[in-house]
Design goal:
Elements (H helix, E strand, L loop, with lengths): L1 E3 L10 E3 L5 H18 L2 H16 L5 H23 L13
Antiparallel strand pairs: 1-2
């Protein structure tokens, strides 16, 4: 079952699967989406990654390290979304490294 993403900005029509019963599914989906991005560089894919990062960062059932990491990655993926719209060649050049 799908529902509107509760953690997405208001007015965001993006739908995410129901992750209430298994938060690990959101993490697995996020990893799958992230590994698909280099081949596609789609703004829609970047937005979906952002939505999943929000879900992971706000789900208290997941380990704090995962939540903090997801939160820190959001600014990078916001930039990836903008850069993928612009069609620039190298997306990683202007992004900081997060440790």
């Amino acid at each position: 079952m799908s529902h509107a993403c509760r953690s997405c900005a208001e007015g965001d029509d993006e739908l995410l699967p129901e992750y209430d019963s298994s938060p690990e599914l959101a993490l697995a989906a996020l990893l799958t989406l992230m590994t698909s991005f280099p081949a596609r560089r789609s703004p829609a894919l970047a937005r979906s990654i952002l939505a999943h990062l929000r879900v992971v960062s706000q789900d208290g059932r997941l380990d704090a390290v995962l939540r903090v990491c997801a939160d820190q990655l959001m600014s990078n993926w916001e930039a990836f979304e903008v850069l993928s719209v612009a069609g620039t060649g190298s997306l990683a050049e202007s992004l900081p490294t997060i440790n």
